[in-house]
Amino acid sequence: MKISIQEGHPALEVVIQCPQADDTVHKIKTLLHSQNQKLPCTLDGATHFIDPMDTLYFESVDKRSYLYTAKAVYETPLRLYEIEALLADALFIRSAKAQIINLAQIQSLCPDFGGRIEAVLTNGEKLIVSRQYAKNLKERLNLS
Amino acid sequence: MKKLIEFSIPLKAFAAMILAGILVLYMVSGVAYTLLTDADFEYSIPFAFVIQGAVLSMLISVLWGVFLSDVLIKKWRFALRITLFAASLLPLLALCFFVFMTIPADWTLPWLLALGGIVKFVIFLAFLHEWNYKKTGERYTQALQQYVQRTQQ
After folding, report:
1. What is the dihedral of CA B58, B61, B63, B66, to 10 degrees?
2. What angle do CA B143, A125, A53 make, to 5 degrees?
3. How confident is the model over B31-37, as a mean pLDDT?
4. Mean pLDDT score across all residues of chain B
5. What is the pTM assigned to this prediction?
6. How many domains does chain B fold into?
7. Could you tell me if residue A55 is inside a domain?
8. Would you say residue A2 lies in a domain?
9. Is residue A5 part of a domain?
10. Which segments of chain A does DSSP mark as H helices, in order?
11. How many domains does chain A have?
C-alpha cells in the first residue's frame, strides 16, 4: 500500500485510490471515520464526548450501557448493538453477550477453562471472553 | 447472606456430583470384582455407605470451594491451588478410607502410597497444564500485538 501526503490544501480530505473497494479499503474507511467519532456519555449529570480508542470496554448492565475508561465509568445512551455497529472497527470485538472490548487496550491474553479467554487490560483489570465469542477473537487474530 | 448462598450452591452441586460418582464407582467396581473373582456381590448399596459417601463428598466439595472456586481465594496461581487442594485431599481421603472402610492395618502403606502417587500425579498435571496455558497465552498475546500494530498502521 502506497501512502502519500499532499500539503497545501484548504481542508483535510482523504481520497482512497484503489482498483476495487475490498475489505482492506473498508477497514481503512472505518478507521478514518472512527478518528472523528466521539461517543456521547454522561458522568455526574454532565455530558462528555469520549474517543472510542480511550475506551477499555463497553458493558451493558440492566439495559443500560456503560463505557469504561482508565479514569472513569460513563453511561452512554447508545445500546450495545448500536455501539457495535458504530464501531465496526477492526479493533473492537464483542467479548461477551453484554460486552464489547477494545483490542488495543488489552495487555495480555491467556486461555481459561471451558474454552474461554482471559484478557488483562492495560489498567490491570481482567475480563473474560466467553467461549461463544472466543472463537471470533481467535479467528480475528488468525489463531484458529 | 447473598455471598454465602453464592458460595454454597455450587458446593452442593459439586458434592452431589461426587456422591453420584462414588455410588456409580461402587456398583461398577463391585460388578467387575464379582465377574473377575466369581465372588458374591450384593446388588444394593448399604445405607451406611451412602451416608459415608455423602460426608466424603461434602468434605471434598468444601476443599474445592476453598481452593479452586474464585469465591474465597481470587488471585492465586492455578497450580498452587491444585497443589494445596490435592495435598489437603490426601489426609482427608486416607482418614475416610481408614475410618469408614476399616482397611486392615497391613494395607495402610499400600493405600498411602497409592493415594500419594495419585496426588503427585494430579500436581504434575496441574503444573503441566499451567505451563501449557502460559505458552498458549504468550502466543495469543503476540498475535494480538501483531494484529493491533497491523490495524493501527
Report:
1. -120
2. 65
3. 85
4. 83
5. 0.64
6. 1
7. yes
8. no
9. no
10. 23-36, 80-86, 131-140
11. 1
Does the pLDDT of residue A56 top 90, yes or no? yes
Instruction: Give residue B36's domain range.
Output: 2-152
- H or E element that contains B23: helix B2-37
Q: Which residues of A touch B (CB under 8 A)?
A: 27, 31, 90-91, 103-104, 106-111, 117, 140-143
Determine whether the interchain pair B148/A103 forms a contact, defined as Cβ–Cβ distance below 8 Å: yes
Number of A to B CB contacts under 8 A, please give it: 41
Are A102 and A91 contacting, i.e. CB atoms less than 8 angstroms apart?
Answer: yes
Q: How many CA atoms lie within 13 A of B26 on its CB side?
A: 17
Are B136 and A111 a contacting pair at CB < 8 A?
yes
ipTM above 0.85 for this complex? no
> In terms of residues, how long is chain B?
153
Chain A CB contacts of B143 under 8 Å are: 141-143
CATH of the domain at A44: 2.40.50.1020
Q: Could you tell me if residue A89 is inside a domain?
A: yes
> Residue A126 sits in which domain range?
23-140
Nearest chain B CA: its distance from A16 CA (Å): 15
